[in-house]
Amino acid sequence: MHTYVITGYGEIDDVIRLVEEAPPVPMPRQIVCDIRAAALNPIDLAIIRGDLKRINHYRMPRRIGFDASGVVSAVGSAVTRFKPGDEVFVRASRDTIGTFAEAIALDETFFAGKPAPLSHAEAASLPLVGLTTVQGLVDRAKARPGQRILIHAGSGGVGTFAVQFAKALGLDVTTTTSSRNAEFVRSLGADTVIEYDKRDYRQLPGGYDIVFDTLGKGYTLDAFRAARRGGVVISIAGPPDRQFADQVGANLLVRLAMRLMSRRVYAASRETGVAYHRFLTESNGQQLHRIGEMVEEGRIKPVIDRTFPFEELPAALRHLATGRARGKVVLEGDNGPSNLP
How would you classify the pairing of strands 208-213 and 192-195? Predict the structure, then answer.
């Protein structure tokens, strides 16, 4: 079986390798998925660069990739929800990454049935961005119909899903994007579009119930000024919140470092009366199933910027790293990743 690994932390072309491994054999509660398509995410780049090595210090060489869609080829003895031949999509956990491969074995609770109307490439584009949005807006922000939300980077991988999902929840959606993508994000359901190359959103009236910070850095602190008192900032790129250390099982030294990193956001939270959440997405087949239902109901549609053949993963990663992708970047083959060197 062919699979991609990283041999260490560094630049894409220096550490990505295509290798041969034994095909996976399922444990009792696992299913083996023959992968037809796998989506790229910014966290893949962060792992390759070593940005997250204090949180997850992987032993090298290490398989990478979180999102996939494919066909069940084998099931463990205790599996009850799936059978060989079922089409599924999945988001691997941080400990089980490895979807840039011909096959993967994962716990059956991570999987959901692939939405029937979608291709494997479309289905693979959804898991991480979908679960991130659900776990941010529903589980943490407790979003309710009628609330106002600001979503940064509405034309990006997370943003294109979040705009649609927030609209489906009944929120009034404002998003930032370039003027080039303004009409595109309106077509996804955005009520108000702030074209960042023409207007500075910080100079406009705020008062949002929820700010979804997908960019981090200065945008995280600025989000507290855009939110109303009693509102919430949901970040997927800012400093860790106080539950983050528990989520990753951090040791004492890492916990102290996280506390130092978070001082400014918690000072801003106290000053403005705005809650703050920064979390890592968890694999969840039940939530993925609900996302699939929303797709089949026509409330969510995948947005793919570009697909690459399986053997061109380094080129796909370089394209993602430009930061210009409109929607998701996906790796696929004709009938799964085949005909490899």
Answer: unpaired
The answer to whether residue 133 sits within a structural domain is no
Same domain assignment for residues 229 and 274: yes
Please state, in angstroms and as integers, the Cα–Cα distance from residue 184 to each residue in 159, 164, 297, 323, following that order.
12, 12, 21, 17
What is the C-alpha separation between 135 and 124, in angstroms, rounded? Answer: 18
**312: domain CATH number?**
3.90.180.10
* Residue 273, both tokens: 């009366």
Q: Are residues 145 and 274 located together in one domain of the fold?
A: yes
Do 42 and 149 fall within a single domain?
no
pLDDT tens sequence across 88-147:
999 999 999 999 999 999 999 999 999 999 999 999 999 999 999 999 999 999 999 999
User: pLDDT tens digits, residue range 136-153?
Assistant: 999 999 999 999 999 999
CB 196 within 8 Å of CB 171: no
Sign of the C-alpha dihedral computed for residues 11, 13, 16 and 17 taken in this order: negative
Residues 6+ apart with CB under 8 A from 302: 118, 122, 123, 125, 126, 295, 327, 328
Domain limits at 102?
2-126+283-332
Helix (H) or strand (E) holding 316: helix 313-321
Q: Are residues 305 and 271 in the same domain?
A: no
Percentage, residues of the chain above pLDDT 90: 89
Q: Do residues 92 and 160 share a domain?
A: no
Q: Confirm whether 339 is domain-assigned.
A: no
Task: Report the predicted TM-score, pTM, of the whole model to 2 decimal places.
Answer: 0.94
CA 300 to chain centre: 16
